[in-house]
Write a structure and sequence with these properties.
5 strands
Amino acid sequence: MQTTGLSGGSMFPLGVTTNTFVVTDGSGNTAQCSFTVTVTDNEDPQITCPANSSVDTDVNMCSAVVNYSAPVGTDNCSGSITTQTAGLTDGSMFPLGVPPTPL
């Protein structure tokens, strides 16, 4: 008889699950065994950034307010967080830049 854990064919959650079984014979003697099932997340999160863009300066300014849709990452497991690590945020005043020279 299974006393803890999930049965075979069940959807096991991320992490470690311990399954324990007990057998009892006709004389009341028992034996027990346990094993663990470890589910790990090896699937990388996904994210798609907007395309590069070029904008003209705002009227009488040497910069431009730029609005863009910030990307949001997804993952097969809950709890993913998308964090901006560089650059200016949506709606910021972007300074004049020099476009890269074509090769």
